[in-house]
Amino acid sequence: MNDTAIVLTLAAAVAAAVPIALAALGELLSEKSGVLNLGVEGMMLIGAVMAFQVGDASGSLWLALLVGSVAGAVFSSIHAFLSVTLRANQIVSGLALVIFGTGLSTFIGKSIEGKPLATDFTPIRWGPLGDIPLLGPLLFDQDPMVYATIAIAILIAFYLNRTKAGLSVRAVGESPGTADTMGIAVAATRYAHVMAGGFLAGMAGAYLVLGQVPSWSQDGTTAGIGWIALALVVFASWRPLRVLLGAFLFGFARRANFWLQGEEWAPNIPAEFLSMLPYLLTIAVLVVWGSRDLRRRVGAPMALGVPYVRDER
Amino acid sequence: MIPFRIRLERRLERHWWQTAATPLLSILAALAAGAIFLLIEGFNPLTVYRELFEASFTSRYGITDSLTIAVPLILTGLAAAVAFRMNLFNIGAEGQLYLGAIFGSWAGLAIAADLPTILGVAAVLIAGAVGGALWAAPAAVFKAYFGTSEIITTLMLTFIALFLMRYLIFGSKSYWRDPEVTNFPQGKKIPPTARFELWSDTRLHWGLVAAIGIALLVWAIIRFTSLGFDMNVVGSSQNAARYAGIPVRRTVIVALLMSGALGGLAGATEVAGRAYALDPNGLELGLGFTGIVVAALARYNPFAIILVATFLGGLRNAGVALQGLPGERVPVEVSLMLQGVILLFAIGGEIFSHYRLSMTRLNTVAAA
Q1: Of A107, B104, B117, B257, which is least surrounded by CB within 10 A?
Q2: Contacts of B265 (CB under 8 A, 6+ apart)
Q3: What one-character DSSP code corresponds to residue A308?
Q4: B350 CA to chain A: closest CA distance, Å?
């Protein structure tokens, strides 16, 4: 049964979930420290185009992934500078990051438009585990980045909920004034987490271009995943492990078309409607869980999007 | 150790020239930063800038094309401004624009054919405004009654609108799709009575006048009506508004619906003035998002929005115009990249109209 359409689709959904999850985990780190960064799509594009250039020149997959991630982090420091140091409106700054990232990546990527990249991630087969019905192809026959993503999510969950540093981050996101009084460096914490977010977004973009799409194109490589990642953070109510689950769900929604089109019994649902699903789900979740009274319980950082000015507290 | 500490200090008074100088200096700084990227890629920045400028602002067609792109930007800029100045972050003007195009082109196809031109165009615009307002309505109601973040809902609705538009043209044989073109799906053209008249032989249309008129109207509503007053109070402090007996929920909903209607109008003017059909490819994607930037650069002032929209329209247009130019090839992407740099600098520069840098000498004796 391991090569039936549904199993293949589910396995593909796991891979499709990787970039969504990575970008969303990055955004989660940034938002937990109180900085909303709408520029995910831009950071992913920069990560993707830099990874492609390096992968193309060096042939090394992992070097390309690293450079893409670092490029994302460097790029996100623009947002950190504008929103933390210069106290700019985070929404406008994030959108400007998308516009700049789109322009810059197209500019850098002009010479490689449409060029194929020879590298690819090889799946790790866990011996006989890969033959287990359903679970085998889903969990034990995936490329290394799938496992890396799961590990990163667990690490972030541990970091935020079980370490002192994580507690500080949450304090900065909930009440920067209090955190400041406690001696936590608010600005430094925010810089670090915005850039960690950029690192993961860059990694997501790099993974896309190295492992999933055959070539670089400005509008085709990320295809709106950065925006889905933003939705996913809310959908997962700011919890890293729920991000994994949500990413799988959203990844499935992106891949389900191919499966449903081939099935006799499936009602003829237009592909566009399936593509709407993640967005509709997010609104539903937000309305049901995200109302004002429940906001605290849901986990949205209370100081999200608010610049911190020590003198004017 | 640096013996100085640099910090930001709030300006106590603001002069008008400071307000005007900040965006201008930001643009200059952005051009300087853009020059670095151009040099790295091996272009002469001066040549590139001159060609960009000439392509958009010196020739007759250049100017009119820039203004043509400015039309929807004025409207999406207003859409963002109306909401943002109340701290309601409707970032979904993009989706409201799509709905405006869907509703507007429906009106053009369904009812405009038998009307005189002025009524036909009016039908397209009104339908577009209704479409945009409807698309903002869920976000408005959820915000007012449940406190749901409008940032995320309007963003999500944008993507739903995008897929809806694709479905109507690519995914189905809908009313909007042209049944006679079979090789590549296209929108059905609206009749001439639903189109803005063009200015002589240019691509510029009367939508520009409509957009400027709407900007004046928005300014008047904010400045002179009790609704505008309520909006200002709610924007400053919801509690103050509540104590003053201003219906906060209703004001929030009305403001977001107005914002959505303006976004819808942008889509309708694109249909009536440029695309003449519901066209997922022909509509300039990103106009809604750029509108937010227009509004921010213009500090949510309707008149400044007209100026900023023309400037950004010129930059957008330069990208397209450069493709057709002979001689030294300036890549199209330069204009997009420059837009980004200018925006970032303008946003960053914004702070200096509210704050000034002050250097204080640290007590070096104590340190020694």
Answers
A1: B117
A2: B75, B100, B125, B128, B129, B132, B214
A3: -
A4: 7
- Whether the CA torsion A88, A24, A98, B92 is positive or negative: it is negative
**B301's tokens:** 């002032």
Touching B: A residues 232-291, CB under 8 Å: 234, 270-273, 275-276, 279-280, 282-283, 286-287, 290-291
Question: Which of B250, B225, B226, B256 has its CA nearest to residue B238?
Answer: B250
Domain with A274 in it:
5-298
- Residue A168 lies inside a defined structural domain of this protein: yes
Q: What is the pTM of this model?
A: 0.86
Are B165 and B278 in contact by the 8 Å Cβ rule? The answer is: yes
B44: left (phi over 0), alpha (psi -120 to 50) or beta: beta
Which of residues 181 through 200 in chain A touch B, CB cutoff 8 A?
Answer: none
- Each residue of B34-82: pLDDT tens digit? 888 888 877 788 887 887 788 778 878 888 888 988 999 999 999 999 9
Distance (Å) from the alpha carbon of A243 to chain B's nearest alpha carbon: 16
- The candidate with the shortest Cα–Cα distance to A34, out of A98, A96, A83, A81, is A83
**Could you tell me if B252 and B144 are in contact, meaning their C-beta atoms sit under 8 angstroms apart?**
yes
Number of domains in chain B: 1
For residue B31, tell me if it sits in a domain: no
Structure tokens at B206: 């009367």
Please list every residue in chain A whose beta carbon sits closer than 8 Å to the beta carbon of residue B30.
Answer: none
Please give the structure tokens belonging to residue A3: 């090569």
Which segments of B90-116 does DSSP mark as H helices, in order? Answer: 93-110
Least Cα separation, residue B288 to chain A (angstroms): 11
For residue B10, tell me if it sits in a domain. Answer: no
- The number of folded domains in chain A is 1
The answer as to whether B195 is a domain residue is yes
Task: Give me the helices (H) in B111-149, please.
Answer: 117-146
Residue B267 placed within a domain: yes
Q: What is the pLDDT of residues B81-123, one digit of tens each?
A: 999 999 899 999 999 999 999 999 999 899 888 888 889 899 9
Task: Judge: B289–A100 Cβ closer than 8 Å, yes or no.
Answer: no
